[in-house]
């Protein structure tokens, strides 16, 4: 699985909105705070608005705000809004694939990978990140001895 810049920026903007919830934040301010290109962020916010995660408000006190409480929006919700399904194999959902012969069990590996990614992203909310308190299972995974090493 690879999180693109678009996915990363979307999560960072949503976490920033969670930190300011329920007050709206201007896109330019979000871009500055999170060091994200403003024009790129506008497109991301459009996707988040289209999928119902954020709403925009016009006027001097306007900006973007979350449509739900930060503890009701998972990181998975945000990533799916801008990236689509969390795990794809050759541009297909793992459950849509079939493998012949000795590779047949590989399908279970891809489905398990999708389940593991969901376990992290769907159990971690914007409130968790904005509040600095990640779920215990996520913290535990990040403290494994090889978690920070690239293989």
TrEMBL record:
PROSITE patterns: HTH_RRF2_1 (PS01332), HTH_RRF2_2 (PS51197). The keyword Electron transport does not apply. This is RrF2 family transcriptional regulator. PANTHER family: HTH-TYPE TRANSCRIPTIONAL REGULATOR ISCR (PTHR33221:SF5), WINGED HELIX-TURN-HELIX TRANSCRIPTIONAL REGULATOR, RRF2 FAMILY (PTHR33221). The keyword DNA-binding applies. It comes from the Bacteria. SUPFAM superfamilies: Winged helix' DNA-binding domain.
């Amino acid at each position: 699985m690879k999180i693109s810049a678009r996915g990363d920026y979307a999560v960072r903007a949503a976490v920033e909105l969670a930190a300011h919830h329920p007050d709206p934040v201007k896109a330019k301010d979000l871009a500055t705070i999170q060091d994200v290109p403003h024009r790129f962020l506008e497109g991301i916010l459009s996707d988040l608005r289209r999928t119902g995660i954020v709403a925009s408000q016009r006027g001097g006190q306007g900006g973007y705000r979350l449509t739900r409480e930060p503890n009701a929006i998972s990181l998975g919700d945000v990533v799916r809004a801008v990236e689509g399904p969390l795990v794809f194999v050759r541009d297909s959902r793992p459950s849509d694939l079939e493998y012949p012969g000795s590779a047949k069990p590989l399908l279970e590996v891809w489905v398990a990978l999708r389940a593991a990614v969901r376990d992290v992203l769907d159990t971690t909310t914007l409130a968790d990140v904005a509040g600095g308190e990640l779920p215990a299972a996520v913290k535990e995974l990040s403290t494994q001895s090889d978690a920070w090493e690239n293989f």
